[in-house]
Amino acid sequence: LLHILHRLARDLDLHLGVAHFDHGLRGEVSREEACFVAGLARDLGLPMHRGEGDVRGAARAEKISLQMAARRLRLDFLQRVRRSRAYDRVALGHTADDQVELFFLRLVRGAGTEGLKGMWPRTPQGLVRPLLAVGKAVLLAWLQQEKIPYREDQSNLSRRYLRNRMRLDLVPQLQQDYNPRLKSAVWRLMANLQEDERLLAESTEAAFNSAARRITPDWAALSIPRLLALPPGLQTRLLRRTLGSFLSHQEITSAQAKNLLDLARGEKSGGAMTIGTCQVARAGRELHFFPPLPPPPEPCATLLPQSGMVESPDGWRLEARNLPEPRPEGNPVSPALAWLNGDRLAFPLTLRPLLAGDRFWPEGAGGTKKMQDFLVDAKVPRWLRPHLPVVAGGEGIIWVPGLRLADPVKVTPETSRITELAISPADDRTARVWRLLLAWTSQAALQA
Fold first, then answer.
1. Whole domain around residue 11: which residue ranges?
2. Residues 6+ apart with CB under 8 A from 330
3. pTM of the model
4. Are 311 and 395 in the same domain?
5. Which of 227, 262, 290 lies at the terminal end of a domain, its last residue?
6. How many Å apart are CA 192 and CA 419, to the nearest integer?
7. Secondary structure letter of residue 241 according to DSSP
8. What are the backbone angles phi and psi of residue 337, rounded to the nearest 5°?
9. Which of 54, 282, 370, 446 is the most exposed, having the fewest neighbouring CB atoms within 10 Å of its CB?
């Protein structure tokens, strides 16, 4: 692939680079291959981008196969190079023979037409496969004709992997006993399936636009009533469409799609499941899709003894100050600020997470209520609640940042001193929690 693109570069106005990812699975052989690729890039006068990763560690951590982990890390690396170096496309060397292997691999796993269609020649994620219509034998013959050296991955000869057994055993046996032109038949079938898939993709996208909404770039909500009103086949496609935008190059199995439908059909809200790099949580009449949040830290209380600033071990920063005269009118513009009746405020203030049994008297309400009931009324998703901070004082919880002030400390005409509280995230986890909360409350306000 590299030699072909290099020869076409001037005519096609291509600006090329070479990227190589070392999976660290074959020791010295892997390092020799990296050196071979680096030498090839140097001889062609092209920039070289090298990466490596712990494939075995990723497979253990995510409970996936070595091959799936290798593919995920490799594609993540290639996309990082593309974005950071301002390349337009990542060109991959898949051939027509790879399509045949993938067809039978997915067939024996019970894939539907979405899987059996094979790889696209071009994807919205910037991947292109220029050799997808060319057989491996043709490419090997060209390399020999041009006297171009190449290396073969010896792990492709191991029957330990199912894909290799497809290539080495199943396909040759089918060609010998059933159809000598088996590969051509499979290519025709996959081409037909891709045409069908393009048509069905339009229906899926229309369903997505009707049933789903983006709350943030990394948070989508899918209406359960609208999902379940669709025909069964379109339900599965819609779930794959929604989930697929959050996964890092991972196939979505039929079992996973069924589990998502079971989550949607459940009678109770609050269920959740994790699929690869995406968490799906039931939130009322919606399914929420988002990258998993880190587990909330152990509950801890941070005291602010007087006016000033304090930072909590779980990543929040709280500041208190008395506002000068003249007193401000109305309410703070920023949800990160709260104006309290300083006459009723009792230091020290406590910055902490929510605790079981918490009660809260929201501003304007007739009395206290369970914090859980307040958050349900505010429609805050259950999966987000354990990550929220609260500020407590002598009157109990006096502020739920981003949501509501407590009634006993609200500013009144008789207030002689106004205290301003300001909260801000102090690490990446709390910054993401705050961003999610503000996006949610903003959309909830628009819907109201």
1. 2-184
2. none
3. 0.80
4. yes
5. 290
6. 69
7. H
8. -120, 150
9. 446
The closest of 219, 201, 167, 1 to 90, measured between CA atoms, is: 1
- From its phi and psi, is residue 94 left (phi > 0), alpha (psi between -120 and 50) or beta? beta
End-to-end CA distance of the chain: 55
Residue 196 is assigned to a structural domain of this protein: no
Domain count, the chain: 3
The answer on 369 and 345 residing in a single domain is: yes
Helix (H, G, I), strand (E, B), or coil: what is residue 171?
helix
Tens of pLDDT along 210-269?
999 999 999 999 999 999 999 998 999 999 899 988 886 666 777 888 899 999 998 777
Q: CA 186 to CA 174: how far, in whole Å?
A: 12
Within 328-406, strands assigned E span 337-341, 349-353, 359-360, 369-370, 389-393, 396-400, 404-405
Buried-state track 31-54, b at ≥16 Cβ within 10 A, e below 16: eebbeebeebbeeeebebbebebe
162 and 79 in a common domain: yes
Spatial distance between the Cα atoms of 163 and 152, rounded to a whole number of angstroms = 16
Plot region of 216 (φ>0 → left; ψ -120 to 50 → alpha; else → beta): beta
CA 399 from centroid of its chain's CA atoms: 32
Q: Tell me the C-alpha distance between 117 and 193, whole Å.
A: 5
> Does 284 share its domain with 255?
yes
**Shortest CA distance to 187 belongs to which of 99, 253, 259, 116?**
99
The per-residue pLDDT for range 368-384, each reduced to its tens digit, is 999 999 999 999 999 99
> What does the alpha-carbon distance between residue 36 and residue 40 come to, in Å, rounded to a whole number?
6
Total Cβ atoms within 10 A of residue 330: 7
C-alpha atoms less than 13 angstroms from C-alpha of 286 in its C-beta half-sphere = 19
99 and 26 in a common domain: yes
Distances in Å between the alpha carbon of 240 and those of 119, 183, 194, 205, 233?
16, 28, 16, 11, 11
Structure tokens at 413: 């005409």
Q: Is the preceding peptide bond at 401 cis, omega within 30 degrees of 0?
A: no
Please work out, in degrees rounded to the nearest 5, the angle formed at the alpha carbon of residue 196 by the alpha carbons of 195 and 201: 100
Residue 446 in this model has a pLDDT that exceeds 70: no
Q: Which amino acid is at 77?
A: F
Q: Number of H helices and number of E strands within the chain?
A: 15, 20
